[in-house]
Design brief:
signal, DUF4126 domain-containing protein, 158 residues, 0% strand, mainly alpha
Amino acid sequence: MSVDLVARSLALGLAAGARASLGLAAPVLGPAPASRRGEPAAYVRRPPASLRTVAVLSVVGELVGDTLPATPSRLENHGPDGRAVSGAAGGLLLARRRRAPVAGTLVAAAAGVAGAVAGTGVGAAWRSAFARRGWPDLPAALAEDVVALALATWAVRA
């Protein structure tokens, strides 16, 4: 098990806590995993274009939808649950790309969940702090978007 994999799974989970779609979309949109000697070319292929298109649309839709005033809090309904699942799936996908053993895969998924739970709480607190001061929500949402995208981008880099 790699500390780097755990750190990247945690970062991807934090991003999923901010924007739930990033847990699954970032590994799909990230660079293809490096090939190893003797490995079949089919393994290192990128996901199909249709899956990448759905990933892009889901991220763009969430980024836009999150700035709308009618969008409910991430803490309502099953928002935290979905973000935790997204973080776990992101950790699993990162572990799969790195061909981690089963134990490493489980730890990566757990790190993704932990990151998503933390990211959900921190993101909600960030936005709430802006609201309490009477500041407009849009700058807070955009700053959160930048941080989430940066974390997700770093997480899927080789």
